[in-house]
Amino acid sequence: MGKLYAAPLDVYFDEETAGVQPDLLFVKKDRDFIFRENNGIVGAPDLVIEIVSSGSVDKDRNVKKDVYERFAVKEYWIADPACQTIEVLRMENDRYQLFSFAEQEGKIKSAVFPGFELEVQKVFQ
């Protein structure tokens, strides 16, 4: 299947965007070559999850989203504990499109993990 990594772990897309640290990221097993011991991830993970805090709203929703989109991270989740929401953005035609969304109740789905569903309420309990 693959491996889930947690911060702090640097992701290097190119020399200008070196050192981005997602809160969580997932790399499929067939792409595990992008993990470099002592160097972090070199290339686009399959899934990135950012957990929004009061000081990171703009960075997570705009700056990092633009970076992940530009380098074609297949799926980007934005988890917002204050609003109890999770947005799942999926890469379609070189742009992110909303794939799944849930607020306080309901389930989100993933394109990276077909058949996977997660109850948002359980995440924020």
Largest sheet: 6 strands, mixed
What is the CATH H-level superfamily? tt1808, chain A
User: Low-confidence runs (pLDDT<50, min 5 residues)?
Assistant: none
Q: Identify the CATH class.
A: Alpha Beta
Beta-strand proportion: 35-45%
Number of strands: 11
Mean pLDDT: 93
- Shape, per Cα inertia axes: globular
What's the helix and strand layout?
Layout (H helix, E strand, L loop, with lengths): L1 E5 L4 E2 L11 E5 L6 E2 L3 E3 L4 E5 L5 H14 L4 E6 L4 E8 L2 E9 L3 E3 L7 E3 H4 L2
Parallel strand pairs: 2-5, 6-7
Antiparallel strand pairs: 1-3, 3-6, 4-5, 7-8, 8-9, 10-11
Describe the structure.
- The strands form 3 sheets. The protein has a 6-stranded mixed β-sheet with strand order 1-3-6-7-8-9, with helices on one face. It has a 3-stranded mixed β-sheet with strand order 2-5-4, with no helix packed on it. The chain has a two-stranded antiparallel sheet with strand order 10-11.
- With 125 residues, the chain is mostly beta strands.
- The model has no long low-confidence stretch (mean pLDDT 93).
- It has a single domain, classed as tt1808, chain A (Alpha-Beta Complex).
- The protein contains 2 helices and 11 strands, in the order E-E-E-E-E-E-H-E-E-E-E-E-H.
- The chain is globular and about 40 Å long.
